[in-house]
Amino acid sequence: MKDLRDFNSLSLMQQQAILVKWNTRAGLWQLKHKPESTTNYSLSGLTQITPKIIEELEEINKKKPIEDLFMGFNEFDQLPENLFVNLTDLKWITVSDNSLKSLPPHIFKNLRKLKSLDLRRNQIQKVADDQFNGLDSLNFIHLDDNHIQCLSLNIFSALNNLSTVSFGGNFLPAFIDVSFFVGLKDCKIFKGKQRFGPFQ
Q: Which of 35, 65, 140, 149 has the smallest number of CB atoms closer than 10 Å to its CB?
């Protein structure tokens, strides 16, 4: 996909408040944001997130901060490392039902308002030890149905507001050391059933 001609839709989860018009001279879709609109956005029908899509999202975000970004049910096998750099008001991110195999290091580092991160039903094999560092407000992480084989013992230890972690349907050991849960005082852990592994 060379430009946004292949960009099927940018829709809102609650209200349609985006006007989309093809700008021939600029060679991209022109997204007009209504000030009274909700801050929930959905990207669909995409195989990748191009620099132009990021640029358009950032322009919309300047007019009214995006808080909820839904990117599920696309065909992403990777995310640009700068995707969220200027979207610092995000509170909910959904990237479920894609083909992600890994996550760029520190892709979430500026998202101190983020409350929910949904990465279910991808093909993620490994999560970096410091992948979630700095997510001070995070309440929910969903990692179910990936290809994860191991998690660091302290991967969630700095997330003081975490209330729910779910990671069923991976290739983790059936028994996980109790020290894995250190620091998760009031957090609900949903391991679910793990797949037979190790993943090949």
A: 35
> How far is C-alpha 168 from the geometric centre of its chain's CA atoms?
18
Question: How many separate helices (H) and strands (E) can be counted in the chain?
Answer: 1, 10
**pLDDT tens-place string over residues 147-197:** 999 888 788 888 889 999 898 899 887 666 666 666 676 777 777 777 755
* Cα R_g (the chain), whole angstroms: 18
Model pTM score: 0.78
Total residues belonging to the chain: 200
| pLDDT computed for residue 56 by the predictor | 93
From CA 189, how far away is CA 9, in angstroms rounded?
Answer: 36
Residue 118 φ then ψ, to 5°: -115, 110
Report d(CA 93, CA 107) in Å as an integer. 12
Q: Are 1 and 48 in contact (CB under 8 A)?
A: yes
What's the one-letter identity of residue 90?
Answer: L
Six-digit token string for 195 = 């797949």
Residues 137, 23: Cα–Cα separation, whole Å: 39
CA–CA–CA angle 150, 125, 107 (5° rounding): 100
DSSP state of 125: -
User: What are the structure tokens assigned to 69, written together?
Assistant: 């970004």
